[in-house]
Amino acid sequence: MKRKVQITTTMALKRKSKQFKWQRKHLLGLRDLSAEEITYILDTATGFEQVSRRSVKKAPPLRGKVVVNLFFEDSTRTRNSFALAANRLSADIIEFTKKASSVSKGETLLDTARNLEAMGIDIVVVRHNAGGASRFLSRNIKACVINAGDGFCEHPTQGLLDVYTIRKIKGSLDGLKIAIVGDIAHSRVARSDMWAMTKLGAEVTFVGPPTLMPAQANLLPVKMSYCLDEVIEKVDVINMLRIQFERLGGNPFPSIREYSHYFGLTVERMKRAKSDILVMHPGPINRGLEIESEVADGRNSVILEQVTNGLAVRMAVLFLVNQAAAQQKG
In this predicted model, what pLDDT tens digit does every residue of 203-251 receive, in sequence order? Predict the structure, then answer.
């Protein structure tokens, strides 16, 4: 009966998505989006997934458009994924690097964006260490803005590719139990995952030491646990987060060895998990700390599938914000 309810809910959302019209020229976070909007993005990404399987991996929707990757923080997966997504949609791409720009001379975020806009850009993909940076830009420039990670706030395309991966394998998120484990306090991924997963019907539990839990967690739509062993047998999906040492202001746990002992996803812990549990990680992975290599590379791992699916999701987001901007101009 539970499976039937999940299928019915998914079919209902898909029917609604066919009637839905996307109207947002910016993607700033998933907290603002409805379940219908999230489903619409996922359904659009399914169509773009086919492009990567063709002999000619190009589609024309962004031909003549200019996309700038405005990254003020280091990135491998997100930056390259957006660049490839824009390329496959036939856009021209500007790669911004903080070290080789006038930011090193004191230029502000807004001045940088406005100067790039003066060159005729259409979409800005921005990653910044300040929370709200993408929202600030969206209010001050005419180009479309996509948040690729802002401070501790959100990382919406990572959240989207995570739920896309789960939906693709499980069929639906409705009724699933999902654990997000690790450095929740500093994780923008955890926040975007939380909003997307709960809006699509999943039960989410944040797991980690008290020192790495977010402030006012009782106001969030999640459960809390300080013991991975208490939840490992119950969950359908487990998403392991990296300890963000570069953002820590002190010593949130006695030692790396102790953290790994209590919160690391080990081969031994996996023996007590469901046989079809999905193991996820947004990367980069600290092997041997939050997850053992045998688990990260094991049969339950969908970590590389997350990376693959990120391309289709980012193609969908680029396409949709550009489409909305064109409709608003018209």
Answer: 999 999 999 999 888 899 999 999 999 999 999 999 999 988 766 666 7
Question: Domain range spanning residue 173?
Answer: 156-307
Tokens of 64: 């003549």
Below-70 pLDDT ranges, the chain: 1-18, 98-105, 246-250
Residues 178 and 279 in one domain: yes
Among candidates 135, 140, 138, which has minimal Cα distance to 111? 140
The pTM for the full model equals 0.91
Strands (E), the chain: 66-71, 92-97, 123-128, 144-150, 177-181, 203-207, 223-225, 237-240, 278-280
Is residue 214 in some structural domain? yes
Other Cβ atoms closer than 10 A to 227: 12
Question: What is the number of other CB atoms lying within 10 angstroms of the CB of residue 219?
Answer: 8
188 and 162 Cβ atoms separated by less than 8 Å: no
Q: How many domains does the chain have?
A: 2
